[in-house]
Specification:
Oligomer: single chain
Largest sheet: 7 strands, mixed
Distance between the termini: 103 Å
Strand content: 5-15%
Order of helices and strands: HHHHHHEEHEHEHHEEEHEHEH
Helix content: 40-55%
Number of strands: 9
Shape: globular
Strand order of the largest sheet: 1-8-7-2-5-3-4
Radius of gyration: 26 Å
Length: 444
């Protein structure tokens, strides 16, 4: 028995030594020994081979379509344009008013389309792949060939028996180091070196966590990186977005105070860096939140604030409505577009379906996390636009750069009913069109 525990201890020492020497130390100083690159090259070749096998076996069948090619082919025109086309075949009314019974067909069709495939619900389901990636989260396994089945079985062993323990170990080390490091830095006096050490500890720990997820991140246009005294806004796919962005720089976080393990991490982080944490009651006080954020950005020595204005995770295909709060402060906005490659793993967190623990387990047993990050030029609110218009302009820029669908819907519809204001907006739009035409008059 003693020999067993001695052997287990020896294996554990070797395991930790390899992790520290081959992963942690390179991650701390921002360089790579080439292990991740070799793994990704092997993975790409394996998935390409699997794709060819699947396509060859299904040459007589249509491959799975992506979620962007939905069941419904919607028109891109406005309400006015579609109603005008619908009315072309009807005779001109002999009396005033521009309402006709045929208008009902437009609203009926729109309603049926929304029931069959609405634009909101499909943004909170996993993005479907064109070809199976030897994972089972978005495409179910089907027998194709013996070779493919063997590769799939080997992949399960690699992901659950090698990658998962490695990633869990790195996650524990990264979080522990974050708590210990920030707590130690928090004991230092408020000198310039304290800020430098705080940023280094934060970035170092996030890099360890990123290596633990086999993250391959490509940062574009680094000259546009967020600067101190500003607000960084980005589209939101997963809580890991924070790890991806902080792997390339340090940010001040904004959020609600939590208990448990998350609370320990928050209290440690705020000791060394001025993060903005709110109590539950304070989050409901909009003026207090705005004031604290404005005070933070007015201090040009403090880190840029990182905010996800959508307020919820969206499935890596679209950008939904930005909350206007962070755009009312009057600070410089630094937009960031993020797009994950679903071929290597589905990064989307469907919080209505999976708990945080289940989601993290799925991420730690996926192939890798591949993401492109684009830093967009800084944007400022113009004199002739309000906060909502400014938020929509920033959102459109992010969607265009990331190749995402730009939607006006509120992500809060994920858990709430449609606001009456949305219904009234459609009613007012139609009413204005009818009244406007009526006011111009009609000749008999």
């Amino acid at each position: 028995m003693e020999d067993f525990w001695a052997g287990a201890l020896w294996v554990l020492k070797i395991w930790l030594f390899l992790i520290v020497s081959l992963i942690m130390i390179p991650a701390m100083f921002g360089f790579s020994l080439g292990i991740s690159e070799t793994y990704m090259n092997l993975l790409v070749k394996t998935l390409e081979w699997a794709t060819l096998k699947i396509q060859k076996a299904k040459t007589d069948e249509q491959t799975l379509t992506s979620s962007s090619n939905g069941l419904i082919q919607r028109e891109d025109g406005s309400m006015e344009k579609e109603l005008e086309e619908l009315r072309r075949s009807r005779p001109k009314p002999s009396v005033g008013g521009d309402f006709t019974l045929s208008d009902c067909f437009y609203f009926s069709r729109r309603g049926i389309e929304s029931i069959v495939e609405d634009e909101v619900t499909q943004r909170f389901t996993s993005e479907e792949l064109v070809s199976w990636n030897l994972l089972t989260r978005t495409n179910d396994f089907q027998y194709i060939s013996l070779k493919l089945t063997l590769v799939y079985g080997i992949g399960i062993f690699v992901r659950y028996c090698i990658l998962a323990p490695l990633r869990i170990t790195l996650a524990i080390i990264g979080l522990s180091w974050l708590v210990i490091g920030t707590s130690a830095v928090g004991l230092l006096p408020n000198w310039r070196i304290k800020s430098w050490l705080s940023e280094w500890v934060h970035v170092m720990c996030y890099r360890i966590c990123a290596r633990g997820l086999s993250a391959t991140i490509r940062y574009h246009n680094r000259e546009n990186k967020p600067k101190k005294g500003g607000i960084c806004v980005a589209n939101h796919t997963t809580p890991i977005d924070i790890v991806i962005l902080c792997n390339d720089g340090c940010y001040a976080m904004v959020g609600q105070v939590h208990g448990g393990l998350m609370g320990v991490v928050q209290r440690a982080m705020v000791r060394s860096c001025p993060h903005v944490w709110f109590e539950r009651a304070e989050m409901k006080d909009r003026h207090l939140v705005t004031k604290r954020l404005r005070d933070h950005v007015n201090d040009k020595t403090k880190l840029p604030i990182l905010i996800f204005p959508e307020g919820t995770c969206v499935n890596n295909t679209s950008v939904m409505m930005f909350k206007k709060g962070s755009f009312e402060i009057g600070a410089t906005i630094y937009p960031v577009a993020m797009k994950y490659d679903p071929k290597f793993g589905d990064a989307f967190w469907n919080s209505s379906k999976y708990s945080m623990v289940s989601y993290l387990l799925m991420m730690m047993t996926s192939w890798a996390l591949v993401c492109n990050v684009w830093y967009l030029p800084a944007m400022h609110q113009q004199e002739d636009e309000d906060a909502v218009q400014f938020a929509n302009r920033v959102k459109s820029a992010i969607a265009q750069q990331g190749g995402l669908v730009d939607l006006q819907w509120d992500g809060g519809l994920k858990r709430a009913k449609v606001k009456e204001s949305f219904k009234e907006q459609q009613q007012k739009q139609y009413s204005t069109m009818v009244v406007g035409d009526d006011s111009s008059g009609h000749s008999d």
